[in-house]
What we know:
The complex is a heterodimer. By secondary structure, chain A is an alpha+beta fold. Helices cover 24% and strands 40% of the residues of chain A. In chain B, strand 1 and strand 2 form a beta hairpin. The longest helix of chain B is centred in the C-terminal third of the chain and has 22 residues, at 80-101.
Amino acid sequence: MTKAIVVDYDLSAPPEKVWRTLTEPALVSRWLMETDIAPVIGHRFTFRSKPMPGWDGLVTCEILACDAPRLLRYSWRGGSGVNALDTLVTWTLERTDAGGTRLHLEHSGFTDANEVAWAGMSRGWQKMGERLDPIAAEL
Amino acid sequence: MSVDAVLRALADPTRRAVFEQLCRGESTVRALTERFDVSQPAISQHLGALREGGLVKVRREGRSAFYRVEPKGLRPLVSWLEHYQTFWRERLAALESVLEEI
């Protein structure tokens, strides 16, 4: 069974402007992560972030749908083994009556395995994890 | 709470030890001070940071304050779904700021 994150965000900027912040690397890097994204179907790119326990900081993506300025969809893959993520990010932009944008984000494809990632954490965290079993049981 | 905030809260070894101690049961500042070779203000500061990281909570009974672990506090570390819920909300707020600048 997969799960999704859904966020609706109202912006006063028009869809054309919001589209730029979703698709131009220099702009995307300012609010999301360093990237070489391009709004072209089939384009493969990455998002690069600081590594942390259990994750090398790299997200691997491919543009799957692209219809300016309404729809942008890309795969969002990262990690390995039990920590592997194989998800989908979909942005839909709706023009509001006031000339702004209702931005709809859906990040889907999270599996039950993604809910618990202890196994992917570094040894130090795992040791703490063992001591925290009674606490973890309440999670 | 994002993964960053949780990791920051647990970055200090003494703070981590205080957190682990609280995992064994709730405690007062005084009891924690007696257990660790650290001053009371330092313990209070650590507890403040742990509270900010969403890892501990406090309940007051009369004049005493009892600190205990917030079990859900570690969820961002263990759950990609939890992590991304917070992650996207924070990122969209940042997106809004960038829009105002261009």
